[in-house]
C-alpha cells in the first residue's frame, strides 16, 4: 500500500511530491494498477493516485479510476479516498 510508503516502508518507487502533475500521478497510478515498473499490484494506491491525478486535470485518470472502482470493494475505495485526502493535507 502506498500509505506504508509514507512511513518509509516502501522504497521501491519514489512518492509523488506535492507539486506532481496530473500526468505524473496518472503514470504512477498505472504502475500500481498493473504491478509493473517495480510497483506492487495495489488497487487502493492506484485508485488514490488516479483520484489525485483527476483532481489535477488528467482526463485519462478519471476513466481508469472509474474502471478500477468496478473491481474494488467499497471499503477499499473508501480507504483510497482517505489516503488521497491524507496526501493532500500533507502536500
Summarize the structure.
The chain is mainly alpha-helical and 91 residues long.
Topology:
Blueprint: H1 2-6, H2 22-34, H3 43-55, H4 59-69, H5 74-90
Helix pairs in contact: 2-3, 3-4, 3-5
Task: Please report the total strand number as a whole number.
Answer: 0
Main structural class: mainly alpha
Q: Could you give the distance between the termini?
A: 18 Å
- How much is the average pLDDT? 86
Radius of gyration: 12 Å
Give start-end ranges of low-pLDDT stretches: 1-11
Outline the structure in words.
With 91 residues, this protein is an all-alpha fold. It has a domain at 17-73. Helices cover 65% and strands 0% of the residues. It contains 5 helices and no strands. It has helices at residues 2-6, 22-34, 43-55, 59-69, 74-90. Helix 3 packs across helix 5. Residues 1-11 have low confidence and may be disordered.
Amino acid at each position: 500500500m502506498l500509505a506504508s510508503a509514507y512511513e518509509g516502508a516502501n522504497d521501491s518507487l519514489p512518492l509523488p511530491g506535492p507539486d506532481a502533475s496530473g500526468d505524473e500521478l496518472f503514470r504512477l497510478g498505472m504502475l500500481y494498477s498493473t504491478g509493473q515498473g517495480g510497483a506492487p499490484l495495489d488497487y487502493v494506491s492506484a485508485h488514490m493516485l488516479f483520484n489525485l491525478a483527476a483532481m489535477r486535470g488528467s482526463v485519462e485518470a478519471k476513466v481508469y479510476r472509474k474502471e478500477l472502482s468496478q473491481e474494488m470493494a467499497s471499503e477499499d475505495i473508501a480507504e483510497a479516498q482517505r489516503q488521497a485526502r491524507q496526501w493532500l493535507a500533507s502536500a
